[in-house]
C-alpha cells in the first residue's frame, strides 16, 4: 500500500503563495491544493505582509522580486510571527548572496524559476535527512555564464553598453557572446 502523500504535511496545511505573475500564481495554487494544502495567495509584498500578520501560514512560497518590493521581507515577517514556517524563495535572478540571505531569514530552500509544482512540493516537504539527488543533466558552466549574461542583458533593457559596464566586460566581447547560440 502506498503511503499517503498528505502525511508529509502534518496537521497545519496552510500555504501562502506570493508571486506577481498571475497565471503562474493561479496554476501553482491549484496544483498545491490538489496536493493537500489550504492555499492563500498574494500578488504583492504589501498584501502578503498583511496576510502573514493576520494568520502566519505553516508553509510559504515567495517570489524574490515583486512589483512593490522584495520577497525576503515577506519571509522575514512570516518568521517573526511563526518561526516554524517552511518558506521557499522562488527567483529568476538567483545568486549565492541572495540565497544565503534567504536562508538566514528563515527560508528552507531557494529554487530557480521556472520551478514546477513537483519541485516546490518536494522542497516544502523534504526533511533534513532527505538528500537531494544531483540533476541528471546539469547546465554546463558555459551555459550558466550565458544564462547570467542574458538575464543581465534583459534587466538592462537590451542595452549592450550598460550590460557590458555592469558585467565589467568589453562591449565588443559582449556583442560576440550575444551573437552566438546558447551553449549546451
From TrEMBL:
<dbReference type="InterPro" id="IPR001789">
    <property type="entry name" value="Sig_transdc_resp-reg_receiver"/>
</dbReference>
<dbReference type="InterPro" id="IPR047772">
    <property type="entry name" value="ActR_PrrA_rreg"/>
</dbReference>
<keyword id="KW-0597">Phosphoprotein</keyword>
<feature type="modified residue" description="4-aspartylphosphate">
    <location>
        <position position="63"/>
    </location>
</feature>
<keyword id="KW-0238">DNA-binding</keyword>
<dbReference type="GO" id="GO:0000160">
    <property type="term" value="P:phosphorelay signal transduction system"/>
</dbReference>
<dbReference type="InterPro" id="IPR050595">
    <property type="entry name" value="Bact_response_regulator"/>
</dbReference>
<dbReference type="GO" id="GO:0003677">
    <property type="term" value="F:DNA binding"/>
</dbReference>
<dbReference type="InterPro" id="IPR011006">
    <property type="entry name" value="CheY-like_superfamily"/>
</dbReference>
<keyword id="KW-0805">Transcription regulation</keyword>
<keyword id="KW-0804">Transcription</keyword>
<dbReference type="Pfam" id="PF00072">
    <property type="entry name" value="Response_reg"/>
</dbReference>
<feature type="domain" description="Response regulatory">
    <location>
        <begin position="14"/>
        <end position="128"/>
    </location>
</feature>
<protein>
    <submittedName>
        <fullName>Response regulator transcription factor</fullName>
    </submittedName>
</protein>
<keyword id="KW-0902">Two-component regulatory system</keyword>
